[in-house]
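new request in #modeling-help
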Amino acid sequence: MNRTEIKNCLLCNEPLHTQMDWKRLFIRSFPKTICQECEEKFEPYSHEQKDEVVSLYHYNKAMQDFLHRYKFMHDVLLAKVFSEKIHHHLKNRKELIVPIPIHPEKLKERTFSHVDELLKQAQIPFVHLLEKTTTETQGGKTREQRLKTPQLFRLKENVQIYGKEILLVDDIYTTGTTIQHAKKALIEGGAKSVKAFTLIKVGGFHN
Amino acid sequence: MRYKGIIVEPEMRDFFAGKICPPEHTPFSKEKIHQYIEKCFFKITPAISIEQSIFSKKKYICNRCLNDNQEEFVEFDCARCGKVCVYCRHCINMGRMTSCTELLLWNGPMPKFPKRHDFKWNGTFTKLQQKASNELLESMKERRNHLLHAVCGAGKTEILFPAVFHCLQKGLRICIASPRTDVVLELFPRFQQVFPNTIIHALYGDAPKQKGLAQLVIATTHQLYRFEKAFDVVIVDEADAFPYTFDLTLQKAVRKAKRQGAPVALVTATPSVALLSKAKNEGWGYSFISKRYHGYPLPVPRFESLWFYERQINKGRIPKKLAQWTKIRIERKEPFFIFFPTVQLMQQAGPLFQQIHPDILSVHAKDPDRKEKVMKLRNEEIPGLLTTTILERGVTIRNVQVAVVGAESKIFTSSALIQISGRVGRNANYPKGDIVFFHHGISAQMDAARNEILRLNWEGGPNEPHGN
């Protein structure tokens, strides 16, 4: 996915007025992808979070629209929108970064893996350790149904994770079912610790 | 010899005739479509084609929306075909098109449209309307493009009826396209009333599924992306409304949706200079109506200063003059629109206005209850509406009074201001009304709008109702 220069906001298509300055010239940074106005509509998590699961943003209307366009309308380019923030958060983590996988059939349908793409754009190296066992998704299920789901993941063949510290990455944290299942599979496979990072978290208190 | 063909199902034919779409966007099963493809009932094209010559760079073109702006194409690693694919961001809202998507184009027999239609309209034309209507009909008969230039409230929709009726009787397929959903929603019931036995579909963003094969399609110009060589006549209403003037691909969409040689009629109140000269140079038919159907002159906007309105609203108070104006409207029980330059400013002002009257509502482009709110104003359930430029056209409300806040803002171009002024005094019983531009300094666009309205009134001749 390459596009040398982004001239208009990826979300509202208003022209971006990126000003060249010394910092931009000498320090390689992520180019601006969305305008100030669109950026202000997202609601970052500012207060302390449990160390177990760290998220960057609240799930508000703007985020809902973003996710819809990215994940369901398949606008892959939007993976760039949060690159800088994701990069900033993950660049110094020492754990092994493991994205939540999607089922191969689902992947064919969607044509891209949305979590992988977020990490790729943020220039964060990652490895796949898990495999999804079902094609069903958590979206559209009630809380009850989610909590009752049988194990969603299994460890890939021939991976050694004994004693490793792992950071799971997903796009959105709702009831935690996905993360819990993945964590269980990894711990059972011998991982020392499993933490999680998501772009968005539903609920929690707003400030 | 064994017969190997298949009998074409009318449902298939009616669905696909004139359409261009990927198999996933159809109600038919993969197997059935495959069967038809094998028998050559479809032409297949990739959704994105690549043009490349030896010396020039690769160039992508989207075959659905004809977009060729290279900045709107995105290359990515596609997991479906395992190669680098390209998709078009221009029409992504209608479902993403990638270079590994295939588009189906009907290659089978075309449906025949009925030639018997009812025409239930017993209104009368003014002389000017009659003349324009005849000229349009003449152009359609001669299959020549036509520009219908008529002031706001001239009764443009009625002028179309005879020409549309003529085409329907010839068994032609007609499309009335407008850049605005509001216009589609307003036109649809009127045409249904006038042509009760004709199958008419209204196509817009979230339109419900409609049955049958429509001979008359009323659609937003975006929906035209789904058609190719479908229509024998295309009428573009509010032809200059944003984004039609700017968006070249929308103009291409009209060209793509019509059959070769099919005439296009453009209807507008504010044609650009470029459009006027194009019509002249290419020998289009041209009609001009300078007077409203009821014969009264267009209301002329007055300018009122409203210094630092933005700062005042930010501080949580409505500028005095504006509050006064609103109160008078409520006292006199006159419905009103107040136009704002930005959604943000409007949303800040919303609660302040509700202190004057709790039922004052606001609408903007993405408001899901937009239709209902306008209906409420029409039914006199609420005193007035705050709005952004989305309601600048196509909305007719009896005795409406209009204020524009921040008329000097960039978004209010002269044609937008003329359109906004055109909301006032459309009803024969209430031909006059107040149109006021509240400003923080008069812009050239405001002057241009006012001068154009004065010019049109002057061209309309002496101001006697029902005079000509």
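bot summary: Residues 10-106 of chain B form one domain.
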